[in-house]
Specification:
With 371 residues, this protein is α/β, with parallel strands linked by helices. The chain contains 13 helices and 9 strands. It folds into 2 domains: 177 residues, Nucleotidyltransferase, domain 5 (2-Layer Sandwich); 110 residues, no CATH class.
Amino acid sequence: MRRTVPLLDRTPVRRVLTAPQESCPLCDGELQVCQHRKRRIHLLDDTIALTLRDKRCRNPACPSPQLRYRPVEEPLLALPEHEFGLDVVMAVGFMRLRDDFSFPRIHQRLHERAFPVPICPMSVQYQFRNYLSLVDCQVALKDGKLRERLREQGAILPVIDGLQFGEGDPVLYLVIDALSRLPLLGREMFCRSADDLVPFIAQIKEIGVPLLAVVSDKEKALVPAIAEALPGVRHQFCQVHYVKNVAKPMAADLCSLGAEVRETEQALRKFQRSLIHKRKKAEEKDQPLPEDLQVTEKLCEVARAEARCHGKAPLDPPALKRHQGLEKVAEAVREARQKKGGRGPISRSSKNWSRLLRSAGLWPRGSRTAW
């Protein structure tokens, strides 16, 4: 079958996740980062290279000094020790049960996506088993060893989230402990009302382990359902969703800033090509090269690298990061100009570089074009 969409790059997106807790809920002591874990997760449309910063209480009098607090976003991306994200598990389950696809055809569909999922045929079957396990998961109520482990842990921090593969498909609600990263409960629902969610969420109390708080993404049905099923338990909204909502008013400005950065990068590329042509022409005629030509070429390389650097919204938006990088390059040029004091001959490349910075808004108006 011929591919109708171009293959897109699955270069891993680097993200750093840190446990949000600042103080120990058991002894009120200070929590400090105790380890950095590396993990790579393949999602349907992306590959994420995670750096996970876990925390631990340093108070020697703490009743559970070995308890580690992990980032709450990690269990929402993938199951513990699994390579593929929960969205891949959902896709495999729906294509197998709803569309009645065979496992080879599911494997083919995943490879025919715009972002091909790097999965082998046997792993497709493993993801389907994971889906069946999550559809009606009550491991926290039936597994005695898990309940004993949670009791030894001292408390749980359940994260409640709903996963939906497509519009109109049923929603798979999961309850995952953010401390141990283990799935506790799961249920597939066709209706997303608060009345249907209350009995499902109330099962958390049957585990018999104290609750530190409950984390959710502030879904409309989840907020009243948690308040009714778990009265008196603190409800913390997911910080990732909160920060994304806070950053929404900046979306238009960041889009405009990104367009300006792209225009500057294109101008830098054109200017760099002219420098390369100038160097080749001088070498062919055995003419001496301008003193600042090599410096200007290095500045172009650095500026273009800054204009193409990666960032992850909302905390590290790419447009703002690239603009700040270009400003650093412009500041380096201004400092070099001040050190030289505006004296000495001004080459054409210096004039073009300064004119380019002015067009990008990175050079003060009225400045002399000299290094």
